[in-house]
């Protein structure tokens, strides 16, 4: 299957992408991984991306598209893939369509993870990270530390990252609504969108997604 995963910040896209890719036996291709791989390997696209990032500028679509095209041409992605974070806007979606058309293939589904805005803010703004080890992450509601402000693992101070503040989260949501959300309508016009609720346990959301994708796959058979 060839799937695009979309949803607002805090919808759990990364977590669901990993589970779904494993269950469907297809590679999980995320924008973050593409950038890190190309920059660490010193590819031409990686150098271009790093120059923009170091200057504090957004990486142009053509660079991101080039990285995605290269990754999707790898042997493990020939039979399918799950895209996470790409396409990020309608221009990238159109470029992806042209790219796939050139290969004689097309997307099977666009999985839209739906989460109420207030829940997104609650999920992200409630995160607390250990100053000693950023891998130690807690949540004031869903996974609180035993002692407020103290890491269970090492006793370090827990703090809220600047990009997890409510103000920043709402700004990220504005960007999502303006830039990324329009691709849902773009793909809906092609009959590709499958929307599921991303509320509840991770395993429940994965099961919901698998069921929806199987229905979609059967409908296109």
Automatic annotation (TrEMBL):
AMP binds at residues 31, 36, 57-59, 85-88, 92, 161, 172. SUPFAM superfamilies: P-loop containing nucleoside triphosphate hydrolases (SSF52540). It is found in: Cytoplasm. Residues 127-163 form the Adenylate kinase active site lid domain. Its EC number is 2.7.4.3. Pathway: Purine metabolism; AMP biosynthesis via salvage pathway; AMP from ADP: step 1/1. InterPro entries: Adenyl_kin_sub (IPR006259), Adenylat/UMP-CMP_kin (IPR000850), Adenylat_kinase_CS (IPR033690), Adenylate_kinase_lid-dom (IPR007862), P-loop_NTPase (IPR027417). GO terms for molecular function: AMP kinase activity; ATP binding. It is an enzyme of class 2 (transferase). GO terms for cellular component: cytoplasm. The keyword Acetylation does not apply. One of its GO terms (biological process) is AMP salvage. It catalyses: AMP + ATP = 2 ADP. Belongs to the adenylate kinase family. PANTHER family: NUCLEOTIDE KINASE (PTHR23359). Catalyzes the reversible transfer of the terminal phosphate group between ATP and AMP. Plays an important role in cellular energy homeostasis and in adenine nucleotide metabolism. This is Adenylate kinase. It comes from Streptomyces pristinaespiralis (strain ATCC 25486 / DSM 40338 / CBS 914.69 / JCM 4507 / KCC S-0507 / NBRC 13074 / NRRL 2958 / 5647). The gene is adk.
């Amino acid at each position: 299957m060839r799937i695009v995963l979309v949803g607002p910040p805090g919808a759990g896209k990364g977590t669901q992408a990993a589970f779904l890719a494993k269950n469907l036996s297809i590679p999980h291709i995320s924008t973050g991984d593409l950038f890190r791989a190309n920059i660490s390997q010193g590819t031409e696209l990686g150098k271009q991306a790093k120059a923009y990032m170091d200057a504090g500028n957004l990486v142009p679509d053509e660079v991101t598209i080039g990285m995605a095209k290269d990754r999707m041409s790898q042997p493990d992605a020939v039979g399918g893939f799950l895209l996470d974070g790409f396409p990020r806007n309608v221009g990238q979606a159109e470029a992806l369509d042209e790219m796939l058309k050139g290969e004689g293939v097309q997307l099977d589904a666009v999985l839209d993870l739906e989460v109420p805005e207030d829940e997104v803010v609650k999920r992200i703004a409630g995160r607390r990270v250990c100053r000693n080890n950023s891998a130690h992450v807690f949540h004031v509601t869903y996974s609180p530390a035993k002692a407020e402000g103290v890491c269970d693992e090492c006793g370090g101070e827990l703090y809220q990252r600047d990009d997890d503040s409510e103000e920043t989260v709402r700004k990220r949501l504005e960007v999502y609504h303006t830039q990324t959300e329009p691709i849902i309508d773009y793909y809906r016009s092609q009959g590709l969108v499958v929307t599921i609720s991303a509320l509840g346990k991770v395993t429940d959301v994965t099961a919901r997604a698998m069921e929806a994708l199987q229905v979609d796959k059967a409908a296109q058979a």
